[in-house]
Input
Amino acid sequence: MEASAVRDTTGAGVLTEVGDATFDRQVRTGAGPVLVEFFATWCGNCRRFAPTLQQVAAEYADRVPVVTVNADENPELVRRYGISSTPTLVLVEGGEPIGTLVGAQPAQAVRDLLDPVLAQSAGAAAASPAPSGSWVPADACTLPTEEQPLRVAEFDALFATALRRLERREPGWLRLVLAGDPDVEASARELIARESTCCSFFDFQLTPAGEELQLDVRVPDTRVDVLDGITRQAHAAGSRS
Output
């Protein structure tokens, strides 16, 4: 059985498989915790655990990215994290392990691994909010320096008034689900048009979806840190609304 078939039993597409060559870029450089599953294609417990991992990954899609590592094909990562059996979950932040769970555990056990770390991160963020304009890429933004915080404030206002939920299933992709109000759509289209002219690496797509609007934001691998900042800002604004 192919690894992709084992890891994506629901078709939800919320898991990303990484390896020795891509792990550091997609996991170690992230702004928050990442849940890493070490699996093997021959492992019966891994196959049994796959639907549970998909379920938890979907639940935490906008808070904790979930990636998988084929233990047989990536010996460097197996050695780095001391993996001796599969499946093993390692919660990683800044490249360092901060929690481990071994075996085909129930979904609640995985939640119990994630929730304390998320609560601690939320408390730290509330105590030390990111400075206005912190996600603006100084080496790519053509806005005058004094105007950059104003642009961030415009995004903040949009998130605070219209954001319903967000999804972050890939490091370089973010979906913001907004209220499907004509005024919100007009404001969003104007804002992303202006942002696209000063930061050309952004790829925005605004799509009506029933009574909601879906704003997809994509960035290249070299600008994932910018998307991390927007995600944090959207979370903070949404929690204040």
Summary: The chain has a mean pLDDT of 80. The radius of gyration is 19 Å. The longest strand covers residues 163-170.
